[in-house]
Amino acid sequence: MSAVNIPEIVRIIKIHNCVPVPVDIDIDSLATSVDRIEAAITPKTKLVLIASIFGTKNSLADIAKLTKKHNLILFEDCAEGYCGNGYSGDPNADITAFSFGPIKTSTAFQGAISFIRNEELFKDMETLHSLYPAQKSRVFLKKVLKYSFGKLLINSRFINAAARKISLKFKIDYKKYVVSMMRAFTPGQDLTIYRSQPSKAMLSFLYQRVQTFNEAAFEKQMANIRLGTEILESSGLQIPGGNGPERNY
After folding, report:
1. Of the four, 6, 92, 131, 172, which is 20 to 30 A from 50 by CA?
2. DSSP class of 234
3. What is the bridge-based pairing of β-strands 112-116 and 47-51?
4. Can you tell me whether residue 48 is helix, strand or coil?
């Protein structure tokens, strides 16, 4: 797996009695080289997990040739890579997953969309998914209220400034508090929190977010980020992924 990912992914892998093997990435492109992956493969290897860190897009064509050679599943983690409905991930991956969690580009406060190109794998996943209980709408509503408050703390200048002053007065670590509030995965929980079918309310909201995604506004934001990146690089700073073919963070 790509050596950079959230701790929860490592924990989930271990819970399934598997051993995560980190493979280093290139700082300039945030890509994982084929040679490094091949060196990490053993007879016990089952799956190769490539994370598109910060929404970077790097071709998986060569890695896919390697996984086919060794009969391995190629999973593309595009949690941070949603950029509109015209992009469904690298076509060479067996699975591509996009997250719509609380801090993602187009948040639905929960959920994901996966593109599964391996028919046998899809059937297995569909069977497992059908056995899960449906999430209750009130559970999703609680998440919406919680993360909406967090969004106000982050995105409203007035509320942000006021909250920071209050935090200083009462000696509260503001950053730690907000990060904890917006975290989609609470460390240490068992896997039952993931093993449920989405509620109708969540599916409806996710559908609305996908259908109304403003690609023009998104591209405007990306143009501003690219400009900011150029300014930082001209000052001599190294930007992770700065030489990648495309970035969507």
Report:
1. 131
2. H
3. unpaired
4. strand
pLDDT in tens, 160-208: 888 889 999 898 998 888 888 887 776 667 788 889 999 999 999 999 9
96 strand-pairing partners: 76, 115
Among the listed residues 89, 78, 74, the one whose alpha carbon sits nearest the alpha carbon of residue 1? 74
Cα 246 from Cα 81, distance rounded (Å)? 10
Residues in the chain: 249
Residue 145: what residue type? Answer: L
Share of the chain above pLDDT 70, in %: 98
Helices (H), 115-236: 119-130, 137-155, 157-169, 174-182, 200-211, 215-234
pLDDT higher than 70, residue 249: no
- Annotate 83-125 with DSSP letters as a single string: --TT----TTSSEEEEE--TTSTT--SS-EEEEE--HHHHHHH
H-run or E-run covering 51: strand 47-51
As a whole number of angstroms, the distance between CA 102 and CA 50 comes to 22
Query: Mean pLDDT, to the nearest integer, of 14-20?
Result: 94
Residue 98's Cβ-count burial label (10 Å; 0-12, 13-18, 19+) is buried
Q: How far apart are CA 1 and CA 71, in angstroms?
A: 16
The pTM (predicted TM-score) of the whole model is: 0.90
Find tokens 């993602």 and name the residue: 104
User: At residue 95, what is the residue type?
Assistant: I
Kindly report the number of other CB atoms within 10 A of residue 186's CB atom.
9
Q: How confident is the model at residue 150 (pLDDT cuts 50, 70, 90)?
A: confident
Mean pLDDT, the chain, as a whole number? 91
